[in-house]
Amino acid sequence: MASIALKTFTGLRQASPENHHSISLQKAVALPSQTHRRIQIIAGKTSPKITGRNLRVAVIGGGPAGGAAAETLAKGGIETYLIERKLDNCKPCGGAIPLCMVGEFDLPLDIIDRKVTKMKMISPSNVAVDIGQTLKPHEYIGMVRREVLDAYLRDRAADIGATVINGLFLKMDMPTSENQPYVLHYTCYNAKTGGAGEKRTLEVDAVIGADGANSRIAKSINAGDYEYAIAFQERIKIPDDKMKYYENLAEMYVGDDVSPDFYGWVFPKCDHVAVGTGTVTHKGDIKKFQLATRLRARDKILGGKIIRVEAHPIPEHPRPRRLFGRVTLVGDAAGYVTKCSGEGIYFAAKSGRMCAEAIVEGSENGKRMVEERDLRNYLEKWDKTYWPTYKVLDVLQKVFYRSNPAREAFVEMCADEYVQKMTFDSYLYKKVVPGNPLDDLKLAVNTIGSLVRANALRKEMDKMSV
Ligand SMILES: Cc1cc2nc3c(=O)[nH]c(=O)nc-3n(C[C@H](O)[C@H](O)[C@H](O)COP(=O)(O)OP(=O)(O)OC[C@H]3O[C@@H](n4cnc5c(N)ncnc54)[C@H](O)[C@@H]3O)c2cc1C
Q1: 82 is a domain residue
Q2: Which of 2, 60, 239, 288 has a CA between 20 and 30 Å from the CA of residue 50?
Q3: What residues does ligand 1 touch, defined as CB less than 6 Å away?
Q4: Domain FAD-binding spans what residues (predicted)?
Q5: Same domain for 270 and 358?
Q6: Domain holding 170: CATH number?
Q7: Tell me: the pLDDT tens digits for 169-196?
Q8: What sections of 118-231 are H helices per DSSP?
Q9: Spatial separation of the C-alpha atoms in residues 452 and 449, rounded to whole Å
Q10: 164 and 249 part of one domain
Q11: Residue 38: which pLDDT band, with cuts at 50, 70 and 90?
């Protein structure tokens, strides 16, 4: 949410980091190399038709990425399996979603706990700037409980025809020849087996790894590691009069005390608030940062009772490899969380859907075997659509989260109505919004002014500490 649309970044484009390779006997389709990716040789469909059944695809993980993928696959005529280890999983998460997700994923309003229309951005010296004045009456940031959202998306996939399995994916046997199936090993839980579970296998033609930041599917395909932030969050039940204050308000705190490279937050949930922070660079100090976040918000959460403590990694960038043969990664497993804002729910659901669409299209609604290049279509479309967004937020994090004076400058900038409008429009609609040239110029001058002041202040502070 700390995103600011800088339209000048539009058009930047990353070369796909994938290692292009297909499993040994896959038919000779010339795949683009990293340096010559634009000269793509388009071959006709070479994969065989499937008879007597439809294409079988397993989705591992039933978070937003997995639920959205399974729904699209099932809708597209694919024999779909969704394996989720914990059907009542409550993913550690702030639960903030952009308005466009509600429409694009047809989410019913009763699964949205709160509609946030006001945000306070709070600087290291506790200067609070109200943002949100530019929102139109129908616009808001949705706050959801993940156990509710995830279950809703999974159930909807099941209603359309996906088979949802309560199971823990263990490992996968790779095909030894072309068009052979992947054999998945998993522990199946059901009322009969109780907690112990029962070892089972499942044969499928393709696999989508939607199993989050600690993805076993990523390990199975040697996808490589990514840098990650550790995020810590406490759910705090606060007295009703205090909850009133947070009814439609979220707070973001910046400062070295709450995080050296991220922000601390207070987000309203159905009957409590979620207070949290994160860091990449000083993971060992996360509890200290959490305490500082709680201290900064202390007057507003006084009398509160901690009802849940949770922590989880947040990926910092995509994995070096996101595709191998007929196996690909989506959501956190792929590494699709934005820097600066730490937002990943929408991108998880979107990537799950986009990946599934590529499979449906490539397999001609499940009638043909799918190939690596069909899955590559998803990755290329993804990178083309979202790379500018990731880049802008990466730059913003580097510029504005690097010192307390820079953060003061950042909060000062947030008071500008134009900045607010651009920020909210970019966040709510996930578009790098074209601006107005005059206001852009004013913004550039103000930004430079704020940064110069921040820099001068930092130099003075450095002198004082010598
Ligand atoms: C503290 C915190 C706060 C955050 N706040 C926000 C926020 O406010 N807004 C936002 O947009 N993003 C937020 N994020 C990021 C967001 O939570 C993730 O980006 C998002 O959950 C990614 O969805 P996913 O479906 O890819 O993975 P996940 O939501 O992690 O889902 C993965 C699923 O796979 C299952 N699974 C894992 N391994 C296996 C296995 N071996 N077998 C079977 N199932 C398995 C898990 O049980 C889980 O249900 C936050 C993250 C953290 C840690």
Answers
A1: yes
A2: 60
A3: 60-66, 83-86, 89, 91-96, 168-169, 210-212, 216, 231, 233, 276, 312, 314, 331-333, 337, 342-346, 348
A4: 56-86
A5: no
A6: 3.50.50.60
A7: 999 999 998 899 999 999 999 866 667 8
A8: 146-160, 216-220
A9: 5
A10: no
A11: very low
